[in-house]
Write a structure and sequence with these properties.
The chain contains 8 helices and 14 strands. The chain is of the alpha+beta class. A hairpin with a 2-residue loop joins strand 10 and strand 11. Helix 7 crosses helix 8.
Length: 266
């Protein structure tokens, strides 16, 4: 859903349907940038309320927007997946058919490419987690689970199998991104300075160039200003360099520098 106005129209329809019938309504998986764009609009709306973003995992970036009826709150939605979520979100585990011949350098892009080659829309897929370079876990809309399981047979040159899991499965509860937790010393909180402080091989001018060339994204949206100030829990992604979560300022030092907390994706 690239056109934000169309997305907002769809969201209003779902909210009205929830209000009229008092039933759970929901979108497809939304991108980080879509979530960033619509959240301020939802928060300022007097007509849209009692909603929640969730992608099947507390670490999810791609999420479904749920409009909750009077008999469901967000804790019911998350803590009792057998009641609601397992009818909306499925998890598919993709694993080697023969580990001996399996490529152990497969990337997120390889898995996504194989899934998209099935002819399914990107909005039907949530996050993809790769664990131990062998197993991949893909969050999908329930309606396409059979098509994926029955047709995914190869990732790049490796033969694979697929298994359906539900959100109660212990494997699902234990999957999450791997972070390196950093405490970084920065002279200012400008985006260009934070980036050069996190990635020591990048100078301030390198960071400015990346931003000016629109290679830096905050919450999925390209940032064009080097002086942009990050907020706590912002997700920063730099093309070909890496990504991190900005957790905020720990303290200000005696020399008026900032010690900031960063979760760097490994």
């Amino acid at each position: 859903m690239e056109d934000i106005s169309l997305l907002l129209g769809h969201i209003k329809d779902l909210s009205l349907r929830r209000n009229y019938k008092d039933i759970l309504t929901f979108t497809s998986f939304l991108t980080l940038s879509e979530i960033s764009e619509i959240t301020p609009i939802l928060e300022s709306s007097k007509d849209i309320n009692n909603y929640y973003f969730y992608g099947g995992n507390m670490f999810s970036e791609r999420k479904i927007l749920f409009f909750l009826p009077t008999y469901i709150d967000k804790n019911d939605l998350i803590n009792n997946p057998n009641t609601f979520l397992n009818e909306i979100i499925s998890v598919i585990k993709i694993y080697p058919k023969n580990i001996k011949y399996f490529e152990n350098n497969l990337s997120h892009r390889d898995y996504l490419g194989a899934l998209m080659n099935l002819g399914l829309k990107r909005e039907f897929f949530g996050d993809i987690y790769i664990k131990d370079k062998v197993n991949a876990y893909v969050f999908v809309k329930k309606e396409i689970e059979n098509e994926v399981i029955n047709n995914i047979s190869k990732i790049r040159h490796s033969d694979v199998k697929a298994q359906l899991l539900d959100l109660n499965n212990e494997e699902i509860k234990n999957i999450k991104p791997t972070f390196k937790e950093l405490e970084v010393n920065a002279s200012s909180l400008r985006l260009d300075n934070v980036i050069s402080s996190v990635f020591s091989k990048l100078s301030r001018e390198d960071s400015k160039s990346l931003i000016n060339n629109e290679f830096v994204f905050v919450n999925g949206i390209a940032i064009k200003s080097p002086s942009f100030l990050l907020k706590d829990e912002d997700r920063v992604s730099i093309k070909s360099k890496g990504k991190f979560i900005y957790n905020g300022v720990i303290k200000t030092t005696r020399k008026d520098r900032y010690l900031i907390s960063i979760s760097l994706y490994k």
